[in-house]
C-alpha cells in the first residue's frame, strides 16, 4: 500500500562494544533499524555500511541513557538526531525494504535531504547481506559533513561521556 505520510525517524549514537549510529525508520508500527559504524553523512559519494538489525518498538523514539552491562546493546546511547521522513510518492516503505532498495527524504535536526538504503551482494558465509546508506545529490548535500563534528544529543544536549 503506498505511503504518502510523513513517518518518524531517529538516529541514536550508541557506544556499545564499538561506537556506531542506529538509524531507525518508522515502518508499520515499528522501527526498521540499521547499525551504521561510521555514522550517516550528508556527503555525496561516501556511502556508509549499514547493517540491518532487528526491528525495534516505537518506544525507542526517545530513548537516551545507559543500557546496563549484561543486557543486549549494553553501553551509552544519546538521541543524535530525530525528525520525519517521507517515502517517494507511491512507494510502500515495507515493500521497498523487502526488495532491498528504499529511497526517502529525511527532515531532521542534523540530517536533511534524499537518501537511499540499498542491499548489496550477499556474503559467502550465508549471513544477512549488508546494506549501504547513500546520500543522494541534492540541495542538502554537504561534502564537509562529518557526524563526529556533531557529538551532542538533540534531546538533552549531552555527549555520550556526559551520561
Task: Describe it.
The N and C termini lie far apart (41 Å). An eight-stranded antiparallel barrel has the order 1-2-3-4-9-8-7-6. The protein has one domain. The mean pLDDT is 93. It has one helix spanning 93-99; strands spanning 6-15, 19-27, 30-36, 48-57, 65-67, 75-87, 101-108, 112-119, 131-135. The longest helix has 7 residues, at 93-99. It contains one helix and nine strands. The chain is globular and about 40 Å long.
Features of the shown structure:
163 residues, 1 helix, eight-stranded antiparallel barrel, single chain, 9 strands, mainly beta, 4% helix
Please provide the count of β strands. Answer: 9
Biggest sheet: strands, sense, closure?
8 strands, antiparallel, barrel
The portion of residues assigned to helices is under 10%
Strand order of the largest sheet: 1-2-3-4-9-8-7-6
pLDDT average, as an integer? 93
Write the layout of secondary structure elements.
Blueprint: E1 6-15, E2 19-27, E3 30-36, E4 48-57, E5 65-67, E6 75-87, H1 93-99, E7 101-108, E8 112-119, E9 131-135
Antiparallel strand pairs: 1-2, 1-6, 2-3, 3-4, 4-9, 5-6, 6-7, 7-8, 8-9
Summarize the structure.
The chain has 163 residues and is mainly beta. The protein contains 1 helix and 9 strands, in the order ββββββαβββ. An 8-stranded antiparallel β-barrel has the order 1-2-3-4-9-8-7-6.
Amino acid at each position: 500500500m503506498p505511503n504518502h505520510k510523513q513517518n518518524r525517524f531517529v538516529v541514536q549514537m550508541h557506544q556499545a562494544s564499538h561506537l556506531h549510529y542506529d538509524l531507525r525508520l518508522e515502518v508499520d508500527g515499528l522501527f526498521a533499524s540499521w547499525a551504521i559504524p561510521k555514522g550517516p553523512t550528508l556527503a555525496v559519494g561516501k556511502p556508509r555500511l549499514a547493517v540491518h538489525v532487528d526491528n525495534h518498538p516505537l518506544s525507542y523514539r526517545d530513548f537516551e541513557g545507559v543500557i546496563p552491562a549484561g543486557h543486549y546493546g549494553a553501553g551509552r546511547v544519546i538521541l543524535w538526531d530525530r525528525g520525519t521522513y517521507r517515502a517517494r510518492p507511491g512507494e510502500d516503505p515495507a515493500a521497498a525494504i523487502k526488495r532491498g532498495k528504499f529511497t526517502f527524504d529525511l527532515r531532521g535536526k542534523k540530517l536533511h535531504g534524499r537518501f537511499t538504503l540499498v542491499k548489496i551482494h550477499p556474503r559467502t558465509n550465508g549471513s544477512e547481506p549488508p546494506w549501504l546508506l547513500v546520500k543522494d545529490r541534492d540541495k542538502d548535500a554537504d561534502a564537509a559533513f562529518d557526524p563526529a563534528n556533531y557529538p551532542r544529543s538533540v534531546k538533552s544536549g549531552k555527549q555520550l561521556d556526559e551520561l
